[in-house]
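Subject: for your reference before the review

Hello V.,

The reviewers asked for a structural picture of the protein, and I figured it would be easier to keep everything in one thread rather than splitting it across files. Below is the amino acid sequence we used in the manuscript, unchanged from the supplementary table.
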Amino acid sequence: MVDQSASAGSSGPAGAIGHITISYAGFARPWAAWISHQLEQLGHGTTLLRWDPQADAALAEELSGLLEAEGRLLMVLDDWYFRLGPKTQEEWTAALREVVPPHADRFAAVSVATQSLPATAALLRPADLRDLDAREAQRRVLHRLGIKGAGRAVDESAPGAPRFPNNPPEVWNIPRRNNRFTGRDDVLEELHDKLAGSGPGAAPPLETRIALYGTSGVGKSQIAQEYAHRFGNDYDVVWWVSAINRGAAREQLAELATRLGLAVGRELGDRIRAVHEALRIGRPYRRWLLIFDSADDMEQIEDLVPDGRGHVLITTLTRDWSGSGSAQEIEVPPFTRVESVAYARRRARRLTPVEADLLSEAVQDLPLLLAQTAAWLDANPMPPKEYIELIRRGEPSLVGIRISSDYPMAFQTSWAITLNTLRERSPAAVELLKLFAFFAPDAIPVPMLAKARRGDLPEHLADLAAEPISWNTALRRLTESTAVRLDYQVSEDADPAVETALMHRLYHRFLRSDMTEDERDAKAATACRVLVSADPQNPVDTRNWDRYAELIPHLEPACVLDSPEPAVQELLVNCTEYLRVRGEYRMGLKLCEQFIARWRTRLAPTQRTMLTLTHQHANMLRLLGRYREAEAVGSAIVDHLRAERAENDPDVLRAKDGLGGTHMALGAFEEAYEIFDGVWRGFVELLGPEAPRTLSARNNLGEVLGLLGRYEEALATHGELLAIRERELRARHHLTLRSGMVYAHMLRLMGRYREATSRQELNARLHHQVMGRHTPQTLRADHNLALCLRRSGRPNEANELMRDVVERSRRIEGPRHPETLMVQADYATFLREHGDLTQAGELADEVAERYRSLVGEIHPYAVGTLGNTGLVRAEFGEHAEALAIAERALHGMTAVMGPDHPWTLGCALNAGAARSRVDDEEGAVELGRDTLERTKVTLGETHPMTLSTKTALAEDLRALRRSQEAAKLEQEAIGQLSETLGAEHPHTLSARRRRRPYWDFEPQPV
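And here is what came back from the structure prediction:
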């Protein structure tokens, strides 16, 4: 009996009524904690005392030891209370009869057992709390303790209040409880103390992340499961993530968004970021526990671990988590000998204490091996000492099994005996077990195998799957070895089907290593055939995404990446495309790199699968912002294809199109234009002017025209595309919506704010209706609408929408994604004019620095966002620094975009203002005259930037006392602004009030 946890309770009534000690087995801790809380809220002091009788101590002596505790004794009886020790029914009968009657006034009991209690438990007169609501359970506890009065309801939502055990956490997906779990109380209590504090009123713990570290088979996952079951009532959300595979881990974490009721889209990244934010702020639930099981590759999993006031539990084979400071470590040792003996005797009841001790010594107290060997002894008649001697001698060959020398001898021998027994009883079960080793060990898809086409399985397994009774018998045989655990579908059927099988990774690795090469190849080929048959063959259809998410974890164990079969390679291509459209770029990149590395020397670069996955490789790199690497990959494949094929070959055009996208992202807009123009013309000749691929190429051409500042041409191109798509597709098709959005975007850049806003308001509404508010395309539509509202003189609406877009972009795309940087850059300029100047400066500096890190200092986006920081410095009165930044931005933009590009002209407008502020009016006028002439040519006489340049020049001329020329320019500008934008437009009003105009750099989507 250990681990006393005392609470004083309230003063006054507690002293009068007396103290109550609550004795419980570890499994019943939720009940003990709830009862303790109920009593303390009513003024009673309590102590929690975990019941754990020693195997070598007399039960009567252990039971008498309870009398040394303070006050009344309330025993919480469950299925485990009478089984610990273990103690026999006879021992319990004798001990209860000896100890309880002389102290009947001290003993009381409640029962939460699901099975019948021993008959002698009647001496304790336990009150039954099963299947009751909280109020009735509280009434029965008080009545059994002789506490008069009905009590009062206790608020479970109050801070620190444990949930009523019959009311499970609101969100829960923990694997079912291991009813044979034994011991580990010290680890569990240490874990609880570190995460939750050591008692009522304790200060919040410093640790919210704990890593359970230990060797394979030591029981880390079992401890994590038991912690969730034992302490789960402390939480509102308890969620399990299998972290062996990053893709599967992301899917499982994203599923939590649905269970939390979060309004998010279908994209994995969107859902994961929504989960992270919900957990961080504690809404809708503030008490949460997330368990990342088998998180051995920290680099693949670390970004999935949330922040916040909740708790994270990690199981791992490595010390990376603690070594990096990401989590505090608790090392999990093997069983103590006492725990080993207790477990072995419960699992194989025929073992004597001496035999259990010998078995524990033979397997070195390793829980996994002890579970396997004790289970075998329970199911087989071999004398225990003979079996233990076989394990001690370490001669698996005695039972006819070849074992790899890489595994511990006890494991080798015990597993050899298990396989031999299985082979004698059910040869088909052994073959099925070996096939399981070619699927992901934590999610073996049993239904997929059971429903596989007959030709996909070897004949003997096909026969087995065709007969449900034989199939289920084989599965049951596997569970008897403890190497496999079955999880069943949630169903109201009397006989629910198996959903998945789970195998410990140690067994999984061993099974594969113990096969001959021919046998491994045959099993891998079978697994590949099963996966190919399960492929829906359409990864862009969202209705198939759940199936692809199920397939991804099995690609590596099934050796899909090594298969030369065209159908298997097509499966890999489809899975990679699914990862791209789903936004799983890192996992997609990993698959591409693995395939290319394995097949580079065996397949030509232009072979169909290699070509497709190389395209995807470049896509993934570009989508991850790794532009230079994407350029190298794209250039190489273009060169390979050009060496073999004509310039108008579809594959050549496709490869060049991808390379053009990378050039555009790198800011090489002229090169991108040349590529896109050639690709478009090639597809026109090959497929016709209105073929889908031709229209896609023309859209890219229109995009780069806009980036080159050729706004009239870009507007005409997108207008024609919009008309074709409205005619050929439909108004609500996602490509039509995109064309409408880009057309409105170009109208805004042309200064046609009223028309742009009108179109974009409708376009944004349709995006929300058709695609939902959380897709990347909808974010672009809302972003463009916010900018239209700002330019139309509706700052309040623009502010609300812009702030919302920034938040959604951070959550959906990530804080460093190029699209997020784009919207943050625009929000920073808005805040500078209409909001918090300090916040504007911080955000502008952050965006500029991240662009420099992403694309380098000479990229136009890095130059333009640097210029934006100078505008903030000017508002703070730091005129010298503002001038230096403005001149640097002008010089940089001129170098990369040329002197006549609209962005360069905007930088010149700002540089002129900066010169004026330091009293360099001559320099400002000189720059202003040149800028005005260039702007007229580039953008036209009445474009807003032309008119802003004209009013700025007028101000500088006035400073030099050239009043007549200044007045003429000013009157012209105000008249033209009134005519084009309206007399009450903010630009017109600013010109009348002689407010110095400025230009904000807006990064454009690429």
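For the response letter, the relevant points are probably these. The chain has 44 helices and 14 strands. The radius of gyration is 36 Å.

Happy to draft the paragraph if you're swamped.

O.
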